[in-house]
Task: inverse folding
């Protein structure tokens, strides 16, 4: 290949420059806003140093939302991976190649649905009086069941919808990964009368360790974009039991007080945490 | 053998978990409120087209549909024009710099949307472009371009080097090789990448919520607003809006399934 060609510069420089401008400008702007007491309602503002950041640590609601965010990450990532591995293995073992193709198409649907739609579909399905999911409970006990209004179950219901969207999608990827493995070790262990679960537990899953970790990481990143789901289903409620960091930043900046300086400091906190964590993990995984 | 039967039953159950809620929503879009709000779910009912007609006749929905189409297609167009050449350069000239660029493009996905939404809002307000289609297109092109680059790199890598060499021997310059050989050969994989980027921005909600107020509102926003009309939620209309919003991504289902198959078939080689 001709290394002296101008092509890489012509093809890369404008694109990367534009991406850098589009990504760095708002990031730096958020950083500078986080040091101000800027509000939506007045054009004047002062630089107040680290005051916003100091205030965060005595803000109960902020600490609560950080805990909710961590819970959300843990529940959705583990839930998605368990469903995906289980269903992927099941498809690999029990479905003929033709049936597998059909299942793969079906299981792609939830992740393609707009999250706003997925949220509505399930919000109505969980409706305390008319929902189809709560129908068996109503039929048996005669009482309505409002899972989204209960602080202990609300987060689980929203997480369930998230897992519904991503778990099936990852199952499709895992079945393709299983198909791409060399068949010899699996056949050898079959000849030795290994049970299917043993084959997968001891052979195929360990062989897929690296891609599975990458998948979990991708899910962890995507789980940070939980805002739309939570916004439509619970708005952070009941109370603040499903209020994640981005939901709290949004309500501080736009719904309650218009304190966009303070909201920016929450956003910057989130930004630094995620960039540092994911850069370290990603570089470690893809060494 | 019993295990196999149970396994197959579980698979059917999972497929039902995906399809049932969607079919239910589709059915609900054709119900009047009296059929919809029943304590016992109703499967037999007289279909009505009022909900769909209402949704389609609302100017807010029509405007949002128009906005969504213009904004998303333009952003995907920008992703195509800027992203595909960059992806080709990264795929064909692997060295330290392009690897760093590849990681930079990926790391854009790490940015929490709330961290760029707030400053973008202030920036567009200051520039006088807040709540315009232009500002939404520019903001979304950040998403489409980075995803288009990331997902088209494998597509370009799968173009056999020999084909490009042969074209070069025939006297094609590097640019002609890209436009006349690499692009057409990789086209199918690239279509999948672009479809993915379209679905991402079509479904995007948070940036649209913060960056638009009335003129540039996109369809997900208008759909979400319908549920916030107090106690009398018009569920039938809402279901119809959900169906309308879901159609474009689902139309791309086949294309995206093929894209995944191709990506993994390539890995096997």
Result:
């Amino acid at each position: 290949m001709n290394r002296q060609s101008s092509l890489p510069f012509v093809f890369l420089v404008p694109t990367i420059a534009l991406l850098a401008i589009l990504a760095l400008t708002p990031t730096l702007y958020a950083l500078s806003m986080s040091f101000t007491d800027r509000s939506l309602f007045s054009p004047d503002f002062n630089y107040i140093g680290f005051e916003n950041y100091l205030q965060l640590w005595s803000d109960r609601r902020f600490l609560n939302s950080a805990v909710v965010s961590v819970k959300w990450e843990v529940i959705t990532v583990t839930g998605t991976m368990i469903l995906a591995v289980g269903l992927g293995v099941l498809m690999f073992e029990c479905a003929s190649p033709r049936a597998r193709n059909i299942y793969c198409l079906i299981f792609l649907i939830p992740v393609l649905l707009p999250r706003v739609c997925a949220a509505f579909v399930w919000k109505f399905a969980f409706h305390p009086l008319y929902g189809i999911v709560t129908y068996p409970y109503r039929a048996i006990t005669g009482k309505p069941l409002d899972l989204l209004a209960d602080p202990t179950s609300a987060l689980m219901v929203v997480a369930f919808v998230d897992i519904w969207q991503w778990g099936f999608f990852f199952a499709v990827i895992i079945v393709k990964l299983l198909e791409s493995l060399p068949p010899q070790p699996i056949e050898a262990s079959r000849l030795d009368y290994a049970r299917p679960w043993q084959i997968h537990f001891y052979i195929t899953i360990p062989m897929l360790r690296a891609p599975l970790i990458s998948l979990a990481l991708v899910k962890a990143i995507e789980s940070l974009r939980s805002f739309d789901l939570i916004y439509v289903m619970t708005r952070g409620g009941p109370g603040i039991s499903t209020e994640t960091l981005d939901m709290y930043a949004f309500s501080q900046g736009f719904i309650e007080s218009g304190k966009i300086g303070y909201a920016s400091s929450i956003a910057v906190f989130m930004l630094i945490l995620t960039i540092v964590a994911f850069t370290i993990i990603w570089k470690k995984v893809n060494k | 053998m019993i295990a196999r039967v149970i396994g197959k039953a579980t698979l059917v159950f999972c497929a039902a978990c995906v399809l049932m809620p969607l079919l239910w929503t589709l059915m609900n879009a054709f119900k009047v409120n009296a059929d919809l709000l029943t304590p016992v779910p109703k499967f037999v009912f007289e279909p009505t087209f009022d909900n769909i007609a209402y949704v389609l006749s609302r100017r807010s929905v029509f405007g949002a549909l128009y906005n969504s189409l213009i904004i998303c297609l333009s952003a995907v167009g920008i992703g195509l024009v800027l992203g595909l050449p960059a992806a080709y350069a990264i795929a064909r000239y692997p060295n330290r710099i392009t690897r760093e660029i590849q990681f930079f493009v990926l790391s854009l996905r790490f940015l929490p949307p709330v961290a760029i939404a707030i400053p973008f809002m202030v920036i567009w307000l200051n520039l006088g472009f807040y709540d315009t289609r232009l500002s939404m297109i520019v903001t979304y092109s950040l998403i489409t371009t980075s995803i288009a680059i990331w997902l088209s790199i494998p597509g370009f890598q799968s173009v056999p080097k020999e084909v490009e060499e042969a074209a070069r021997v025939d006297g094609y310059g590097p640019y002609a090789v890209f436009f006349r050989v690499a692009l057409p050969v990789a086209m199918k994989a690239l279509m999948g990448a672009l479809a993915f980027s379209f679905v991402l921005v079509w479904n995007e909600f948070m940036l649209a919520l913060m960056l638009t107020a009335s003129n540039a509102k996109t369809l997900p926003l208008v759909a979400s607003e319908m549920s916030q009309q107090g106690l009398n939620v018009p569920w039938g209309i809402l279901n119809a809006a959900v169906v309308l919003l879901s159609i474009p991504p689902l139309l791309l289902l086949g294309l995206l399934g093929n894209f995944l198959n191709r990506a993994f078939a390539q890995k096997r080689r």
In short: Chain A has one domain: 51-285. The mean pLDDT of chain A is 86. The domain at 51-285 of chain A is CATH 1.10.3720.10 (MetI-like fold).
